[in-house]
Every structure is written in C-alpha cells, then in structure tokens.
TrEMBL record:
Domain of life of the source: Bacteria
Recorded family membership: Belongs to the prephenate/arogenate dehydrogenase family.
Species in which this protein is naturally found: Acidiphilium rubrum
InterPro entries noted in UniProt: 6-PGluconate_DH-like_C_sf, NAD(P)-bd_dom_sf, PDH_C, PDH_N, Preph/Arog_dehydrog, Prephen_DH
Protein name according to UniProt: prephenate dehydrogenase
GO BP terms in the entry: tyrosine biosynthetic process
Length: 295
C-alpha cells in the first residue's frame, strides 16, 4: 500500500463532509496514519466515537489541531474566522491548513490572516454533497467521481498543493485548480442560485392558502419534489454561503431575474417560439450534462 499522505489529519467539524472524510480516511490506510475529529458538542463527539470513524475525538479545536500535519476546516463558512483565530497559533510548522467551504474568496479573507509563517494554506471545495447534515449523514462514496476545486492563493507552496491534490484523489475526487474569484462566480450559478430558487419557491408555495398548500403537497409532481429535496438543506450552512458569496450570488440573481422577466413577457404576449426555444435550450443542457457524466 502507498504511504499515507499525512501522519495526523485533523478534521474540524464532523458533519456531512467532515464525517465522510473521516470514514474514508479510516477505511483506507493511505490518507493518514491518525484521524482526529473535532466536534463542537458532547453529543456529536459521542456519536463520532460510537460510529468509530476517528482515532481521536476532541471537543477543543486547539487540542485537535496540535501536532497535525493537515487540518481541514469542515464547519459552516461563517465560523471560519473565529475558528482560524483560535487554532492559528497552534498549527504545527510545515502543516497544511485546508477547508471544504462552499465559498472561496471569503475563506481566504477570513482564514488567511490567521495562518502563521511556515504553515501552508490550500483552500478547497469538494463539489459533492446532499441535503442531509450531521455525522450520520456522511458516507464513504460521497466524493467518488466528483470534482474538488482548489483555489490556492498566488505563491502557495506547490508541494502543499500536490499533497492536498493527492488527498482528494484518494478520497475519489478529481481535482481542478481555479482562481478564487472565478470559483465564486461559477458556484454562484451552478449551486448557490439553484438553492436560493429552491428555498424561495418552497416559501412561495407555503404562503398560498391552506387548501392550496394541501394540494401542492398532495399532487406534488417531480418538478416541485426536486425543489423540496434541495430546500431541505441545512439553514446555518446556507445562511453562511449566501452571506459569504454576496456579490456573485446577487449578480447571478439579477441575471436570472432579467431572464425570468423575459419569460414572463413571452407568456403574457403568447410568444410561443420564445418559450419553445427556452425549453429546448434546457433540454440540450440536460443532455450535455448526461453526456459529460457518461464520458
Ligand atoms: N452540505 C453539502 O452538500 C456541502 C457542504 N460544503 C461545505 O462544507 C462545510 C460543512 O458542511 P456540512 O458538512 O454539510 O455541514 P454539517 O452541518 O453537516 O456539519 C457542520 C459541522 O460543523 C460544526 N460547527 C457548526 N458551527 C460551528 C462553529 N461555530 N464552530 C465549530 N464547529 C462548528 C457542526 O457541529 C458540525 O459538526 C460548509 O462550509 C459547507 O459550505 C461543501 C460541499 C458540499
Ligand atoms: O445536494 C445538492 O444538490 C448539492 O448541491 C450539494 C452541494 C452543496 C453545496 C456545495 O458547496 C456543493 C454541493
């Protein structure tokens, strides 16, 4: 078996993503010799111990990162600044600090200043997840065949980037390196805006009269059902994502609103070919996505 990428891997946050990494690292011998999991509450800590997915469980993030050669922040992005301020001074010289947060410019802004000299910072974002959260939601196939985007600031140690790349590849992902600003615009359209739309449409349906609401749920066809799956996601995580990708999300929302207005106009004026064209375009995009995933 290949040598482990890390000696001691510390995961700060033990929800869907953190516990998935822990499961994979414990199941494979080539990611880390020791897996440390930091959970915020005694309850989660107990659950991690019961699940047997960590070598060491710690409630104190500072103790969790001591002696680790890799630290992965796996908490909601709004918690990163205070977490980084707390653990920064305790990071081992030569260690790598990385993360899994859904936004990248904010993470660089919030974590960067707390990374001491001699510690490498390689921000990351696995493009894989579900609507479920917490330690029981994780599973070891989560990253299989999915992308992981890395956004190392200019001048980041190339060897540190390579180790994080190897780490994600052993988790089953394919790595792509991206500029953080570009990352935030891309995920704003492919992930953050779809979530915003899902939360909004569920709210709109819920605002309707009681009788209608019952019917909405009773006769919900797959279109609405697909939205409700996404809308079942964690409120704290998504609050933090929206507030930390404000600019790109608002830009994409403005573009979407313009396009939705154009569609409304076509519906009002009976512009059949406009509507047909848009539906056809959607179909083509869906087919292209299927083709990419099968290639
Ligand atoms: N859920 C998803 O589908 C994906 C999430 N992400 C990112 O991964 C990160 C973690 O998300 P999930 O694992 O889904 O969330 P989760 O809600 O399942 O787990 C979050 C973990 O962070 C801990 N935590 C919460 N607030 C904290 C604080 N103030 N200080 C320390 N720890 C705290 C929680 O106790 C929990 O263990 C987020 O930054 C999210 O943006 C990235 C890709 C996919
Ligand atoms: O469950 C879904 O549909 C997702 O879109 C999962 C997801 C959520 C957040 C991310 O930053 C990346 C992936």
């Amino acid at each position: 078996m290949a040598e482990p990428v890390f000696e001691r891997l510390a995961l700060v946050g033990a929800g869907l993503i953190g516990s998935s990494i822990a499961r994979i690292a414990r199941a494979r011998g080539d990611i880390a010799r020791v897996v440390v999991v930091n959970a915020r509450t005694e309850k989660t800590l107990g659950r991690i111990a019961e699940l047997g997915i960590a070598d060491v469980c710690e409630i104190d993030p500072v103790r969790a990162v001591e002696g680790a050669d890799c630290v992965v922040l796996c908490a909601p992005v709004g918690a990163y600044a205070s977490l980084a301020a707390a653990i920064g001074p305790h990071l081992a010289p030569g260690a790598i600090i990385t993360d899994v947060g859904s936004t990248k410019q904010s993470v660089i802004r919030d974590v960067g200043p707390h990374v001491p000299q001699g510690v490498h910072f390689v921000p990351g974002h696995p493009m894989a997840g579900t609507e479920f959260s917490g330690p029981d939601a994780g599973f070891s196939e989560l990253f299989e065949g999915r992308w992981c985007l890395l956004t190392p600031p200019v001048g980041t140690d190339a060897a540190a980037v390579q180790r994080i790349k190897a780490f994600w590849e052993r988790c089953g992902a394919t790595v792509s390196i991206m500029d953080p600003e570009h990352h935030d615009r891309v995920v704003a359209i492919v992930s953050h805006l779809p979530h915003l739309i899902a939360f909004t449409i569920c709210g709109t349906a819920d605002d309707l009269a009681d009788e209608t609401r019952k019917e909405v749920l009773q006769f919900a066809a797959s279109g609405f059902r697909d939205f409700t799956r996404i809308a079942a996601s964690d409120p704290v995580m998504w609050r933090d994502v929206f507030l930390n990708n404000r600019e790109a999300l608002l830009e994409m929302l403005a573009r979407f609103t313009e396009d939705a207005q154009a569609m409304a106009r076509a519906v009002r004026w009976g512009d059949a070919s406009y509507i047909e064209d848009k539906v056809m375009r959607g179909r083509k995009i869906r087919q292209a996505l299927i083709d990419i995933n099968q290639a």
